[in-house]
TrEMBL record, chain A:
This is F-box domain-containing protein. One of its GO terms (biological process) is regulation of gibberellic acid mediated signaling pathway. It comes from Nyssa sinensis. InterPro entries: F-box-like_dom_sf (IPR036047), F-box_dom (IPR001810), SNE/GID2 (IPR044184). Pfam families: F-box-like. Residues 29-67 form the F-box domain. It comes from the Eukaryota.
Automatic annotation (TrEMBL), chain B:
It comes from Nyssa sinensis. Belongs to the GRAS family. DELLA subfamily. Residues 233-298 are annotated as: VHIID. Residues 312-344 are annotated as: Leucine repeat II (LRII). A motif (VHIID) lies at residues 264-268. GO terms for biological process: gibberellic acid mediated signaling pathway. Residues 1-21 have a biased composition (Low complexity). This is DELLA protein. Transcriptional regulator that acts as a repressor of the gibberellin (GA) signaling pathway. Probably acts by participating in large multiprotein complexes that repress transcription of GA-inducible genes. Keywords: Gibberellin signaling pathway, Nucleus, Transcription, Transcription regulation, Ubl conjugation. The DELLA motif is required for its GA-induced degradation. The keyword tRNA processing does not apply.
């Protein structure tokens, strides 16, 4: 897409005789937005890396809304306030839809990301993606999850230390296990 | 049984190997043996075969356990240990000896063809024999892992299972000294088996549980605090799709039941972190016609260190609900045992529609004091009196509540080996480790505890159907939406190997067609004959006393 635009620029320059008319896409943001509405996810991400102006434009959520749901038939109504409340379309794409697409790509007949975006989404896929997005939002509300394991350390052949971070605390548990197999006892140890 | 039909291990098939040595080009490394890790030239195969024949005659004349190996040395895929355990258990039940496949027609499958083509043909023959046990992913594993299992490890693995079952029998008979010596023998065997995966891991758990039962029975009930349990539960949720399947299926059923109602109340028997409810709140927010007023009552354990964890979770859910514009109210009920919960604590109002959600909780009520009325029946009765629009029941699909210890032990060995199998597919090591500890606690409860301390009394779906039917509930079909959603969820979250099945309106999640969890939905049967006034009196009576009180009313 970006290369095409550049070539168009040069063609324009060559076509105009005499007048030094420069066409710079950055002067016509609305056209840029219209173009970016129609690209696929990866290109949109690439476009965000071009320059600061383009980066700020691509952070506009409506671009990502087009990307997410323009190929849904029938288009979901009333979804926007919910998605915006839960983090926005860009995050929805990054967290849920991209994963769904890549999984379906692995199962399906291959082809690039762009092929799959043109596929028509079913209602079930939309609903499931939204549900997963909501669960993600909720887990973030927890401050990164309650009691997430930060790391596992094998001290000796038999003893494993499990570090669990929950909210402001870090608890270290001692467990027993050999090779890959960690056994029962979670004994919190005090440092 | 699949694995017994083709004895394909190189060592035991030496009998007619000499018939297939004709017509090979010289000086090529034999393809089949190269797959087994041996670099043997085709020209030397004749000598190899003769040596193997001599070895076989020696082994046949050796002590009995080795001669058994000669007859039934077969390859087992160590990552598919559930099928192996199953075959071992069925072998124990039918002590008839396995016949050695005779005749050269069987050996044509493994004739020593040394082209690579031949190698792949052999391997597809092998995988075809195990069609009932293999998914697509494991076909690749077969070619790599066929070579890994050595005779020594197989021997130890088979012996481990035999000794485990013998030990369980001796525990049942009360012969504790014998059981103790068997446990020591098993711990010795464990050192020879890889306890990082496969049968070693499962056997390690069960040996631990048995030794706890023998030596420290009183210490068993107090493994870990509730806070630890929440951490383990969370990682079990992340590691495998079982709980996600449960949550999403229940949510779909509840959503469909709430269609058209404006005032809804959900009662959750085990709130934990409330991971199930964000998805329901979001689905209600987006339903055509707008969201209803949602009340959630979450039942959970009281937190030990004074933090009101139920209230914190309620606050988070309320925050989520307000950001998506769903009117929401939360109530937390702290109870250390589910049977301590009484209906007045739930404050159900008559104009709202009630949904009850029980994810792996009902089986805890099955242990009962024989002198009093059965806990589960009392419980189901007052649930029914709440007149819920829907009750979603998700339970493990296993039979761990039989009266005989040895039956429970065998069933548990089979079920949890399937469970460990399915966990192998988990990607994150940390999540997998903690999920395994979570399962180990369940195993410990099934094996070590007795009486009221044993809460993991899993029963299969058929028994729950009978029980709930007898308590005045009728089944609600889960519908195709739930099925489609479950299938999609599985493709998103897990390795190939999980499958969803629908049977009589209930969904079952299984690993390679062995069921792990069953989800079903129920609704209270309407009783037309008793008018409302008298029905209320009946309900009040049951809650105040179990003896019939003399009343002037007729029923």
């Amino acid at each position: 897409m970006v290369e095409q635009l550049h070539q168009n620029n040069q063609v324009n320059r060559a076509a105009v005789k005499g007048k030094r008319l420069r066409f710079c896409i950055n002067d016509h943001i609305d056209i840029l937005v219209e173009i970016l509405k129609r690209v696929d996810g990866r290109s949109l991400g690439v476009a965000a890396c071009v320059c600061r102006l383009w980066c700020s434009i691509t952070r506009n959520d409506s671009l990502w809304e087009h990307l997410c749901f323009s190929h849904v038939s029938p288009p979901p109504s009333g979804v926007r306030p919910v998605v915006v409340a839960l983090g926005g379309y860009r995050r929805l794409y990054m967290v849920c839809l991209r994963r769904v697409l890549s999984r379906l790509a692995r199962m399906g007949s291959g082809g690039g990301d762009s092929d799959l975006v043109r596929r028509v989404w079913t209602r079930h896929q939309v609903e499931l993606s939204l549900s997963l997005f909501c669960v993600d939002y909720y887990e973030r509300l927890n401050g990164g999850g309650t009691g997430r394991v930060v790391s596992l350390y094998r001290c000796t052949k038999l003893v494993v230390l499990i570090c669990v971070r929950s909210e402001a605390n870090l608890t270290i548990y001692e467990a027993f296990g050999d090779l890959g197999f960690v056994r029962f006892c979670l004994i919190p140890i005090s440092i | 049984m699949g694995p017994y039909d083709s004895s394909i291990f190189v060592g035991s098939s030496s009998g007619s190997s000499s018939s297939s040595f004709t017509g090979k080009p010289p000086d090529q490394i034999d393809g089949l043996l190269a797959g087994a890790g041996y670099k043997v030239r085709s020209s030397e195969l004749r000598q190899v075969a003769q040596c193997l024949e001599r070895l076989e005659t020696v082994m046949v004349n050796a002590p009995t356990e080795i001669s058994q190996l000669v007859n039934d040395a077969v390859h087992y895929n160590p990552s598919d240990l559930a099928s192996w355990v199953d075959s071992l258990l069925s072998e124990l039940n039918q002590p008839a000896p396995v016949t050695v496949p005779g005749g050269s027609s069987d050996y044509s499958n493994l004739s020593f063809v040394d082209s690579l083509e031949g190698l792949t043909i052999n391997q597809t023959a092998i995988t075809d024999d195990w069609t009932e046990h293999h998914g697509a992913q494991q076909q690749q594993d077969v070619s790599q892992q066929l070579t890994v299992v050595t005779a020594m490890e197989e021997d130890s693995g088979i012996r481990l299972v035999h000794v485990l079952l013998t030990c369980a029998e001796s525990v049942q008979r009360g012969e504790f000294s014998l059981a103790g010596s068997l446990i020591e023998e098993m711990q010795g065997l464990l050192t020879r088996v890889n306890t990082g995966c496969g049968i070693g891991k499962v056997a390690g758990c069960f040996i631990d549980a048995l030794s706890r039962r023998l030596y420290t029975p009183q210490g068993v009930g107090s493994i870990g605090s509730s806070y630890d349990n929440e951490i383990l539960y969370h990682h079990f949720y992340e590691a495998c799709p079982n709980l996600k399947f449960a949550h999403f299926t229940a949510n779909q059923a509840i959503l469909e039941a709430f269609d058209g109602h404006d005032c809804v109340h959900v009662i959750d028997f085990n709130l934990m972190h409330g991971l199930q409810w964000p998805a329901l709140i979001q689905a209600l927010a987006l339903r055509p016609g707008g969201p209803p007023m949602l009340r959630l009552t979450g039942i959970g354990l009281p937190s030990p260190d004074g933090r009101d964890s139920l209230r914190e979770i309620g606050l988070r859910l309320a925050e989520l609900a307000s950001s998506v514009n769903v009117r929401f109210a939360f109530r937390g009920v702290a109870a250390s045992r589910l049977e301590d919960v009484k209906p007045w604590m739930l404050q159900v109002s008559p104009k709202e529609v009630v949904a009850i959600n029980s994810i792996m909780q009902l089986h805890r009520l099955l242990g009962s004091d024989p002198t009093r009325e059965s806990t589960i029946e009392t419980f189901l009765r007052w649930i029914r009196n709440l007149n819920p629009k829907i009750m979603t029941v998700i339970e493990q699909e296993a039979n761990h509540n039989q009266p005989e210890f040895i039956d429970r032990f065998t069933e548990a060995l089979y079920y949890y080996s399937t469970m460990f199998d399915s966990l192998e597919a988990c990607s994150t090591l940390q999540e997998k480790a903690l999920a395994e500890i979570y399962i180990q606690r369940e195993i410990c409860n099934v094996v070590c505890c007795e009486g009221l301390a044993r809460v993991e009394r899993h029963e299969p779906l058929a028994k729950w159907r009978a029980r709930l039917g007898g308590a005045g509930f009728q089944p609600l079909h889960l519908g195709s939406n739930a099925f489609k959603q479950a299938s999609m969820l599985l493709t998103l979250f897990s390795a190939e190997g999980y499958c969803v099945e629908e049977k009589e309106g209930c969904l079952t999640l299984g690993w390679h067609s062995r069921p792990l969890i069953a989800a079903s939905a129920w609704q209270a049967v309407a009783e037309p004959s008793i008018p409302i006034g008298q029905r209320l009196l009946v309900a009040v009576n049951f809650q105040t006393s179990f003896k019939p009180t003399p009343l002037a009313f007729r029923f």
